[in-house]
Prior knowledge:
Elements lengths: L2 E15 L3 E8 L3 E7 L18 E8 L6 E10 L11 H14 L7 H14 L5 H15 L5 E5 L10 E5 L4 E4 L9 E5 H11 L16 H16 L13
Parallel strand pairs: 3-5, 6-8
Antiparallel strand pairs: 1-2, 1-4, 2-3, 4-5, 7-8, 7-9
Amino acid sequence: MSELLKSDALVLDSIRWKDSSKIITLFSREYGIIKVIARGVFRNKSAFAGKLESLNRVEIVINSRSSRSLQILTEADVIDSYNAIRPDMQRLPYALAILELVRQTIRESHSDTIFYDFIIVLLDAMKTSQTPAIMFIYFLLKLVSFLGFRPNIDECQVCDKKPSSDIAYFSLEKGTLFCEECAEGATMLRKIKSDDLDLLRKLQNFPHRKIAEFEVNDLPAQYFIDLLIDYLNFHTETNITLKSLSMLI
Length: 249
């Protein structure tokens, strides 16, 4: 027996199916990641025309049946196409990379309305932020916490003190800090400057609804991204690839 499901959703990606249809991967507020068939997308005067592009936020209606691995999309209306982000090649790659990370780290049908709403707030902030990279780094920090391994970057794991020198070490394995004096013998360490560490601490604790107001003068964006992706890879035992970031100019 089938039922109609309604939800707010982000279009993560799509592939062509047969001559006129698409298989769409959605991240929905109520039902998590779900794959649907949108029939007749490529036909003239299709009701889905222009609505199912990656990054679009849509209101959807799905005909769902538990016996099907792919559900049927019956309606879709655009809530936000993020036109303030799409033409900007300093913003679009980071927005698409958020979608890639959702697709690669969140289990299908695992729903979390709070996390979904957080992503919407972040994408809205990215429309106006002068440092869109900080939105992406902030997302990475919150994603690792959401997945259950929030890094402890407040004090050294051994001596329980904040590192006093200009250099500390972050353990990808343990998700904790080591000061220079206590780092000997620890494994999978990444060196981190004290100023960068202070920035990460501030960002980790910043309220997400005000993230558009976060200001930073000197941002080692690629260093932070590489660090957090490596940390994510280790703890999820995956090999995350973010093709979108290759678009950065």
